[in-house]
Amino acid sequence: MAEGVRLIEEAEKNEIHPEILLYSDAISDRGFEAITYFQNCEVPIFQVADHLLERVSDTKTSQGVIAVFSIEAKPFSATPSFLLIVDRVRDPGNMGTLLRTARAAGVDGVMILDGSVDVYSPKVVRAGMGAHFSLSIQTVTVEGLLANFDELFVNRPRIIAMVVSEGKPIWSSDLQQSCALVVGGEANGVSNEMLEICDEKITIPMEDDTESLNAGIAGSVALFEVLRQRWQQ
Amino acid sequence: MAEGVRLIEEAEKNEIHPEILLYSDAISDRGFEAITYFQNCEVPIFQVADHLLERVSDTKTSQGVIAVFSIEAKPFSATPSFLLIVDRVRDPGNMGTLLRTARAAGVDGVMILDGSVDVYSPKVVRAGMGAHFSLSIQTVTVEGLLANFDELFVNRPRIIAMVVSEGKPIWSSDLQQSCALVVGGEANGVSNEMLEICDEKITIPMEDDTESLNAGIAGSVALFEVLRQRWQQ
Fold this sequence. Notes:
The structure is a homodimer. Chain A contains nine helices and eleven strands.
């Protein structure tokens, strides 16, 4: 379920059609333009009273438009050069932020490990700001991930796990070759299963070692470090 | 006002004493240890019923402890090498995140420009995770900031403003010398007044130029880019 004009526009941009779209008088002119696009695509569209729309809404203000999409996992490239693995991130805001940043950083796909927050829950979709419509996202178990790595990819990317301390400083790690960055959850970081199978552990050096960053921030800093290394290559 | 065990421990760590501290039966053993420290410092401490504590609390669960501090701005160093200027960031979560990241990145001080969210509001304090107790924070107008830059600092730091596009790519900007990084708000970015007086504009390159990052993420990526350049120097 996606609410608000921005998300509907993102769906349009990615040519992803909702199963059903509801709108009310509260919609803006800009929002109505996006609806017009879907009208021409034969999407079932219903105008409803604003107080009814608010009742199905997950937000305080739905901006007068709500659309429901079927979840269709985009296939992964067989030769990815940049993957993000999200390992039990439970905060919807952090999850959405990671997806939004992953898209801006140009990742080829995101694997969400069991135990993470539902990546399609409304809060995550909102915080993702449309990333759900363009990213390849798979929800997998650790076993499924390993199977995928062996079967799906022509060149197995190196698995790089982020740890709070005692990893290789991220700035001296070589992230130019094909890699899959593992970001752990708020409570316990990357799981032991992932730490066991990873090729390298990396840490963001800090001025004050007693500090920590939240999962969304730490992951975002790392995603853009990959981009930087390839940009400066 | 600071709620929860973690924040009280941060106050203890920084030897900052509350004006008053309230706790209830709901407090954990770990929380009680921090209280014991303040008891020995002659801080006024009162045990109250949990339902009363919850009524003054700003959160769903206060963890049984709330403390009130007077706001005392720590003086700035006259020779700072790394400042953060927050220009009209309105979201409390983004503001708190920026402060938390600024501390981890080792900034010498933070200037909050008029029009930003109240940096001492309970939500910002919570998201800051204790950064308020150790950072030098000043709330200033743009005029005040300029006066400070001329009078306060022996070596005027270069003012580097983050812009969404058309700035110098952050990775090729020289951030090794003394600088003040300006992070703009969610809605309109860095204000025109700051853009006029800045020495350089920088942009985080992205894979997809139509994307944007939230203010907390963009600022955090930049703060750690400063750290990286100095670390690799």
